[in-house]
Specification:
mainly alpha, two-stranded antiparallel sheet
């Protein structure tokens, strides 16, 4: 991997975290608009994702470590969550744009396996890229 390639992948991953933070903030706002907000439980994960993305774009070492930690948790936790969901597909609810979808257990299973496979692969790819020597040198 050349230095230009490392920079490109770092920008892609950094912007990915920023977009994930923006989508998380949008989800939080939509939840507050559709349901009364719970003053005790506030989803502030959008701040974490946005700060990690901003830090990656500015090549802060702590942001790289935070991105590695978040990606590793997702890469390990998503297959576990998928197994739990597949074990009880009757209680898996699928919503599309706020509307509940009535789907067969087979379709729910395909959605769970597909979504978890893609999510695990992306998280594994983030870990792979951020642990490469050329990428790590960008933070030195």
């Amino acid at each position: 991997m050349t230095t230009d390639t490392a920079q490109r992948w770092l920008r892609i991953i950094g912007w990915g975290f920023v977009v994930l933070g923006a989508l998380s903030a949008l989800h939080t706002l939509l939840e507050w608009m559709n349901h009364a907000p719970n003053p005790i439980i506030i989803n502030a994960s959008f701040l974490l994702y946005a700060l990690v993305g901003y830090g990656l774009l500015n090549q802060h070492t702590m942001a790289r470590m935070g991105a590695l930690l978040l990606a590793a948790v997702v890469a390990i936790g998503m297959p576990i969550a998928a197994v739990v969901m597949i074990a009880d597909l009757a209680n898996v609810d699928v919503t599309l744009f706020g509307r509940a979808m009535t789907l067969s257990p087979v379709v729910k299973g395909v959605l769970v396996v597909g979504a978890s496979a893609v999510t695990t692969a992306v998280a594994g790819g983030v870990v792979y890229v951020l642990t490469r020597e050329r990428v790590a040198q960008q933070f030195g």
